[in-house]
Amino acid sequence: MIQVTNLSLNYGSKDIFINASLGIRNGERIGLIGPNGIGKTTFFRILNGTVEAQGKVVIPKDYRIGYLEQEAIEVHGTTLLEESLNAFPELLEAQAKIKKLEKEIENDPMNEELIEEFGDLHHFFDEHGGWQMEANAGKVLTGLGFKASEFDLPVESFSGGWQMRIALAKLLIQSPNLLLLDEPTNHLDLDSIFWFENYLKSYEGSVILISHDIRFLNNVINKTVEITNQSFVEYTGNYDDYVRIKWERIERQEQLQTTQQKKIDRLQSFVERFRYKQSKAKQVQSKIKFIEKMDVVKVDDASIQTANFRFPTPHRSSLEIANLEKVKKVYGDKLIFENVNFDIRRGDKIAFVGPNGTGKSTLSRIISQKEAPTDGIAKFGTLVQMDFYSQHSADELTHTNTILEEMENETTLEHYPQLRKILGNFLFSGDDIQKKIGVLSGGEKSRVCLAKMMLHTSNFLIFDEPTNHLDIYTKEVLKQALNAFEGALLVISHDREFLSGLVNRVIEIENKTLKAHLLDFESYLEKKEKEVLSSGTEGEGKKTNETKAERIAKREAEKDIKRKKSNLQKKIKKIEKEIETKEAEIVKIESELAKKEVYLNRIKVKDLTKTIETTKKEIEELWVTLDALLVDMEDF
What we know:
This protein has 5 domains: 1-64 and 176-237, 3-Layer(aba) Sandwich (Rossmann fold), CATH 3.40.50.300; 75-172, no CATH class; 253-293; 320-534, P-loop containing nucleotide triphosphate hydrolases (Rossmann fold, 3-Layer(aba) Sandwich), CATH 3.40.50; 559-633.
């Protein structure tokens, strides 16, 4: 057990901790909660010994602490498997000595000293799991998404996100007494998160997590520690339990405070009434002392300063936002994806999901017209105004600019008077807006990028991993803003809680192409889980047991399905085109109505207005038909 007592730390005039105490027991899986900048990462560094603070931190002898930082980690000079096995320096050293002694004993088989040393090393290697270390490393690497075929690749060939996975794998393989994990899911995809959750739930040591992923916290932790008022407040249970217990406690405190205040008011009334009456002097003094000695019930401050924003109301775009036909992307000799066919329509809220490295970000850049496809056609609708936010947007900020200058460089004269208000909505006010971009935290830079988006009236938003540097509270505000957004949305994210209730279409990138799911995200997760559980249950024997007639019938059924699907797609395209044509007619008539010679002619205005109303009714009928066809399409 680790015991932290009377921990105090300040940076200049800012207090981070004041006499804070906390016990970390064996087997606890703790979620460390609090807004960005409250001191969560600082506490990890205190436990890790890289930051000094006043107070006592008692750590048992030979207690091992493993720390995964949020910042980029780079390794080089080894293969993937070799680097992961570097988690066992003592075992690797013993293994090398064993191999050396084997050769020496071969040349001098009667040397008792060599034989004894060989036996001791062999016993040490066996007792500490040396024979299993490669298998254990392979199990963890595979769980985190690495393929066995990649084990012998040089670590330099892996991107930054995969380098973070290598660092995480080494920590898990080491199996320290305490794991300190700072945003560990930032670079994981859904499959590896599923595996990681199960791994942590059965982990024998203790774990402390900093994470904005509420679903991850709920599935893993059994205790929540909130940093508030420069101290620690402990709650039994997961994140949802913490929220419930906290509000229940606040409600009880408010009730006690109300009851106490009524009692104080009665006592105070008695004092005021009989203060100058000699016969009641003793009673008055007694009640005054009673009030003074009373422990005043305080109510915890549940208010957390959060960003508060909504995306500007967009102009209406064309029905079709984007359409991709047989799109292919190649980098050098590496095929990313091919034969990609799909479209984005007005009102769509789409999630791109799939393993890391499958091309989700690449495809989003093609859709945002930041990259061109290697082959195929990417068409875009009219009146489409798109905005793009990626996990790397913060890197594109000018570090020498102040926050205000960064906004000024982006704005138009129309928005200039609103700059300070917009920044205030993102928690930048007063002197804060004069801070240089270079000194901001990752979360603050993300808020600057979001603030810049408020300066654009876009009807199609693309987000690539938007939650990576946002705290739980800002992430929830962003989700609410996107739910209220009236335009189209495309989002890449592995955050299940963020996507749940937000998207209405799920596109999975797998095996270098797309698989469309006309489902909400929760339904997709359920379907994905069933697929994972049922995989491998159907053997090859089932295929060999099919008769020739059954195989012919199966092929005919598949052909029939393809024909029906093709006919549906043609009908959908035809109706979408009709809707687009009729909407264009309305725009044209509205332009006519704006002309002076027309709007002064009452008869013509009446005729044109009637035509608009008729056309709108026709569009509504077409939408009803289209919705029915899209529902039928879900069966395929």
